């Protein structure tokens, strides 16, 4: 597709009038039309994100509670100090990172397996497989959280009854009473819901691996594992990186499942939930804004690490030349 | 194609069953729960012992009606409007990006990418405060505006990718053949662009329909509260009763349309999701 765009642009340039004045006039009017069409979308995007984050940055410098709005006072970076040295915040950060790393790693493996299955499947099966794979993607996260919660719940669940033959499960096991088991169910539901997305991205990546290369390797006697490692994976590195980055950022913002299943009980509070509880729950706008800004900076940091360290070319992988 | 050996056929059957179980099991689990009698919820079985419609009656005509039906109306209305606005704005923007050459094209795409990775919770605190001051708190408009931060960026990326693949020369060809500019646009370009616009709308709608953070933060009553937020506020018929059955039934009601859309438009959704994201 990139090549196509390039050709289209060359023809367009070539077709333009030779005279310099006319060209600049035309370029000007084209630029005007371009911004006229794309401007509204651009302005709306800035309004719904840039304004709030600037406002949050400003509010984060104040001691500001909605319950006592008259006591609003400038405190500089004190909110940040308070947040960063708070045990609750540090634990939430740790839990969020744990959920992010575990779910992305498992999803990458599971998603790749699913992508391979869809890639190899015969045509009749492929449609069926892609359709069922899309079901978890389409389902509301809150609904999926309830489904998993009720399945594991000590009262209404059936998981304990089904798996009571396993050494560490019996009918009295309350999954949501300890941190470890709670996080297990939370991560499982997150993986179930979002693996389809990653597997579709990887499927698109698999489709770009030249079949001749793979066949050549097979003829040369390479084993399945060698073909994967030396031919397939290197050729779809860009797709893998983009999938990982997008899912990592998404998992870092996890909120819905945790809110529904534990509401942060037993050491399962994640950063988004902490920010929500501080500002919407306790109406501490100053502190909540500080957590919001930190959350935003974390996302920027993850992007920065991905782009600088792992050389993820987001624009390139997103179809931009 | 060479005939598959029995062993290979068996392997594929097994794999297909595994994938089916993986993808559908939680769906069937909540479906089964929605048909259980409240008194039989604790039996520990997967399927209900006695099948009942009582949970559905409760949310559609019974005690939970006033909680569920308004939220369903809110969800449908707000998500449709947010999708419509996003798709209109994104269609104009994507057309400009795909067809015109102007400075700032890259800036617009980068901005869309930046907005799409924004943590929603970071936006909620200032919006919560502002909405309360200017009277947008707990209104439809108060959710439609922030929903654009979810629906607009992905619409721009997906549509720009679709529009780049349209053979625009056909428009000129039609004009050379004697069609007016309007005819060429309506008869040639619109049919080519429509599937991409439709797919984008579908994906944007899924995203708006799925929102939870804005829904619980920026609403307080059934005036604007969407379904996912309302589910979190369900209570049992009495203080001692868990709302499990009602929530499951409501969950099934909002899931069925999504599953139908997925079944009908599987091919379009897959191409839309992957085109926007990976070089295609």
Give structural notes.
The complex is a heterodimer of chains A (321) and B (280). Chain A contains 15 helices and two strands. Chain A has helices spanning 2-15, 20-59, 78-84, 87-120, 123-138, 141-152, 159-162, 179-207, 211-219, 224-235, 237-252, 256-261, 271-281, 285-309, 314-317; strands at 62-65, 68-74. Chain A has a two-stranded antiparallel ribbon. In chain A, helix 4 packs parallel to helix 8 (179-207), helix 5 crosses helix 8 (179-207) and helix 9 (211-219) packs antiparallel against helix 10 (224-235). The termini of chain A are close together. In chain A, 42% of the residues are buried. Helix content of chain B is 74%, strand content 0%. In chain B, helix 3 (65-99) runs parallel beside helix 6. The model of chain B has no long low-confidence stretch (mean pLDDT 88).
């Amino acid at each position: 597709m990139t090549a196509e765009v390039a050709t289209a642009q060359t023809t367009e340039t070539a077709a333009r009038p030779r005279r310099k004045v006319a060209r600049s006039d035309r370029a000007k009017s084209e630029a005007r039309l371009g911004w006229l069409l794309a401007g509204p979308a651009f302005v709306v995007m800035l309004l719904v994100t840039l304004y709030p984050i600037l406002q949050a940055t400003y509010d984060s410098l104040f001691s500001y509670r909605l319950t006592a709005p008259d006591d609003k006072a400038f405190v500089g970076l004190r909110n940040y100090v308070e947040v960063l040295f708070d045990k609750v915040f540090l634990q939430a950060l740790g839990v969020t990172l744990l959920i992010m790393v575990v779910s992305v790693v498992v999803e990458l493996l599971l998603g790749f397996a699913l992508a391979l299955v869809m890639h190899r499947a015969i045509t009749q099966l492929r449609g069926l497989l892609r359709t069922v794979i899309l079901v978890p993607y389409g389902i509301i996260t809150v609904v999926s959280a309830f489904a998993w919660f009720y399945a594991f719940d000590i009262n209404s669940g059936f998981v304990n009854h089904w798996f009571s033959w396993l050494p560490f499960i019996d009918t009295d096991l309350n999954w949501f009473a300890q941190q470890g088991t709670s996080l297990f169910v939370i991560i499982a539901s997150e993986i179930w819901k979002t693996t389809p997305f990653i597997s579709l991205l990887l499927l698109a990546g698999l489709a770009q691996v030249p079949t001749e290369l793979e066949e050549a390797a097979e003829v040369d006697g390479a084993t399945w594992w060698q073909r994967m490692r030396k031919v397939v994976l290197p050729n779809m590195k860009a797709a893998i990186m983009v999938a990982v980055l997008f899912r990592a950022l998404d998992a870092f913002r996890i909120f819905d499942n945790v809110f529904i299943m534990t509401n942060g009980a037993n050491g399962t509070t994640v950063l988004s939930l902490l920010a929500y509880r501080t500002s919407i729950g306790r109406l501490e706008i100053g502190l909540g804004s500080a957590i919001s800004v930190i959350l935003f900076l974390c996302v920027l940091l993850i992007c920065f690490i991905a782009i600088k360290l792992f050389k993820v070319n987001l624009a390139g992988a997103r179809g931009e030349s | 194609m060479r005939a598959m050996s029995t062993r290979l056929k068996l392997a594929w059957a097994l794999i297909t069953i595994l994938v089916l179980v993986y993808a559908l099991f939680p769906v069937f689990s909540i479906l089964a729960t929605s048909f259980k009698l409240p008194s039989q919820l604790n039996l520990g079985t997967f399927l209900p012992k006695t099948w009942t419609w009582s949970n559905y009656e409760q949310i559609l005509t019974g005690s939970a009606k006033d909680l569920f039906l308004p939220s369903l109306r809110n969800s449908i209305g707000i998500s449709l409007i947010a999708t419509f606005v996003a798709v209109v704005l994104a269609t104009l923007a994507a057309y400009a990006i795909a067809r015109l050459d102007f400075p700032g094209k890259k800036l617009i795409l980068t901005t869309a990418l930046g907005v799409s990775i924004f943590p929603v919770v970071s936006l909620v605190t200032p919006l919560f405060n502002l909405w309360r001051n200017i009277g947008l708190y707990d209104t439809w408009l108060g959710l439609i505006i922030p929903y654009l931060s979810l629906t607009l960026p992905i619409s721009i990326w997906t549509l720009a990718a679709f529009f780049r693949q349209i053979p625009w020369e056909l428009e000129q060809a039609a004009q050379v053949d004697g069609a007016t500019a309007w005819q060429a646009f309506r008869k040639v370009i619109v049919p080519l662009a429509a599937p991409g616009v439709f797919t984008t709308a579908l994906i944007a709608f899924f995203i708006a329909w799925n929102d939870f953070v804005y829904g619980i933060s920026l609403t307080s009553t059934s005036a604007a509260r969407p379904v996912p937020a309302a589910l979190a506020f369900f209570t049992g018929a009495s203080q001692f009763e868990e709302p499990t059955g009602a929530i499951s039934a409501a969950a099934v009601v909002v899931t069925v349309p999504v599953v139908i859309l997925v079944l009908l438009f599987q091919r379009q959704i897959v191409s839309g999701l992957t085109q926007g994201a990976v070089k295609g």
